[in-house]
Amino acid sequence: MNGHFANRLMWGLFIIGIGAFLMLRQTGLIEYDLGDLISVFWPVILLFLGIKEAVRRIASGYGSWWSSGILLAVGIVFLGRNLDLFDWSVGDLAQFAGPLVIILIGMRMMVKPKPKEKIEKPPGEEWSAYPSFHPDEPVPPAPPLHPDPTKASGEPSDFGKDSFPAPPVPPVAPSSPTSGQPGADGRDWKRRAHNERMQEEWNRKAEKLQRRAERMRERIEHRADKFKDRHACGRHDRMEWWNSDPNVQTRSGFIGDIYVGHDYWELKPMNISHFIGDTVLDLTKAQIPYGETRIHISSFIGDVKVFLPNDFETGVNVVTSAFVGDVAVLDRKEGGIFKNMNVETPYFQENEKKIKLIVSTFIGDVRVTKVG
């Protein structure tokens, strides 16, 4: 099977499935809400991408089994959770991923085919750029000379015979520029005129390019000034999704769960980044300093859970951005795709202790609750 045909086949089946669902909804055979359908069955997209990658690997040999397996596993976990088939999470799946990867690597080492040995060609069969030279072979004679070009076509040629040198031909007097056929001076005059025209044309083109470059430079400077003014005006309203302070604490993980706040600890500005797995931040036992403390959490696939202390002396501002998943912040809850939320507690600006929590996730739920 051709890889391009397999790719077209998978996308065609996917589009046909969408059209069939819409047709059944229009005819009244099935009734469903489009938002609820997307919020429940969005993992089907991951399953489709995983199956497409596997079919592409089987059909054309291109692609990766690892990416296909990861997409299928994550899609099955999220789809099963949405359909209430099981209560697995990505963190539970990641606990088995490490040993499974080690087992697969060992099996691959056992069944890996032996590399083919390189067949060396004998020296006689190697390609050579130049023919070999044999000094014993006789040198071929030189080719005969051409006929004398100074003789007219009607005169007999002594080609191939021993001949005497021909008498010198008298030089031809050069003709004046004003005659019917211009001589050397006429050709030089035309050449100089042509060079002058070319020089004038190049000068005009150079001036045109210089004017164009000047206009472009003025346009770039004007846009730079506008961008600088707009950046200076909106600097305080811009949201930074990552704290670039060199003194900030950083926690990162690839696969698994991250839990911060097991015991009593002092809260400091923090960056938490995670690829696959759940992220849990417990601030109920944290000693919160005076002033504003920024906490940035970035997750690709997995849930983000933050537990805040129920303290009226501490103001909280939560900014969340989720591509697919449910978002529940304090007393507000939203679900679906492309969800952004900005929630702050009453009198946030007047509180002496402030926590600004910025959460960004691609696929997963975000839950920020107060405990106590």
UniProtKB/TrEMBL annotation:
Key word Transmembrane helix present: yes
List each copy of the LiaF transmembrane domain by range. 10-114
**Extent of the signal sequence:** none
The Cell wall-active antibiotics response LiaF-like C-terminal domain extends over: 254-368
Which segments of the protein form a coiled coil according to its record? 192-230
Membrane keyword on record: yes
Return the Basic and acidic residues bias intervals. 115-124
Give the matching Pfam families.
LiaF-like_C, LiaF-TM
Domain of life of the source: Bacteria
Question: Which residue windows are transmembrane per the record?
Answer: 9-28, 34-51, 63-81, 93-111
Q: Region (Disordered) spans which residues?
A: 115-188
Record field: compositional bias (Pro residues): 138-147, 165-174
Q: Which UniProt keywords apply?
A: Coiled coil, Membrane, Transmembrane, Transmembrane helix
Name-wise, this protein is Lia operon protein LiaF
